[in-house]
């Protein structure tokens, strides 16, 4: 009887699985009053200098293209995505579902956190720029 009681009691206790491994993603536009410009804010502001050496054909080490299949040299090549992401690279209006956002965060869904040779990784405000661009619909014109 004692043993049965113990089993019942233990069964009621939630197992300790530790802290959630994935940081919660907030998919809303952080500042709807500010419109993100793809070329100025996303490409020049973030991708150039942090990603282009590996993700453009003219970069120093274009392994992001040869291995990852992802080319940031134009809006259309970016939107084609890479070997794993495909068109999920950018899901307009849904930053959290976009592989581009997931891969620059602390818990990428596959492979390594980007930039591959980080740290340093992108700052919270740089990640926010990309997230806001997608939240606003990911226009590139
Ligand atoms: C030092 C080289 C390097 C740099 C810098 C780099 N990447 Fe990558 N990237 C890779 C390689 C190699 C892969 C394939 C392996 C992987 O997915 O982890 C990849 C894969 C990716 C993928 C997944 C592509 C797919 O669909 O499989 C995304 C998204 C990505 N990179 C985004 C970025 C972003 C954004 C930056 C800049 C913040 C960046 N990368 C900087 C080398 C790099």
Tell me what you see in this structure.
The protein is built from seven helices and no strands. With 141 residues, the chain is an all-alpha fold. Helix 2 runs antiparallel to helix 7. It is globular and about 70 Å long. The site of heme C has 28 residues, from helix 3, helix 4 and helix 6.
What brief labels describe this structure?
141 residues, mainly alpha, binds heme C
Secondary structure topology:
Layout: H1 2-12, H2 38-50, H3 52-55, H4 63-66, H5 75-80, H6 99-104, H7 124-135
Helix pairs in contact: 2-7
Bound molecules: heme C (HEC).
Heme C is lined by residues 50-51, 53-55, 61, 63-64, 67-70, 81-85, 99-100, 103-104, 111-112, 114-117, 122.
Radius of gyration: 20 Å
How much helicity do the residues have? 25-40%
> Which structural class matches the secondary elements?
mainly alpha
Structural domains: how many: 1
What is the helix/strand order?
HHHHHHH
Give the averaged pLDDT, no decimals. Answer: 90
Percentage of residues in strands: under 5%
Termini separation comes to 73 Å
Overall shape: globular
What can be said about the biggest beta sheet? Answer: none
Distinct ligands, ions and cofactors found in the model: heme C
Uncertain spans: none
Number of H- or I-type helical stretches? 7
Write down how many β-strands occur, each being a DSSP E stretch of 2 or more residues.
Answer: 0
């Amino acid at each position: 009887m004692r043993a049965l009681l113990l089993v019942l009691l233990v069964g009621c206790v939630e197992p300790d699985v530790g802290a959630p491994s994935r940081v919660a993603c907030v998919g809303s536009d952080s500042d709807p009053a500010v419109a993100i410009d793809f070329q100025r804010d996303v490409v020049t502001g973030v991708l150039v200098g942090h990603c282009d050496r590996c993700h453009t054909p003219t970069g120093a080490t274009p392994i992001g293209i040869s291995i990852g299949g992802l080319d940031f040299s134009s809006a259309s090549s970016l939107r084609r995505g890479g070997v794993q992401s495909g068109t999920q690279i950018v899901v307009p209006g849904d930053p959290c579902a976009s592989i581009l956002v997931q891969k620059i965060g602390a818990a990428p869904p596959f492979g390594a956190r980007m930039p591959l040779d980080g740290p340093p990784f992108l700052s919270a405000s740089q990640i926010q720029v990309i997230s806001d661009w997608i939240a606003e619909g990911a226009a590139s014109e």
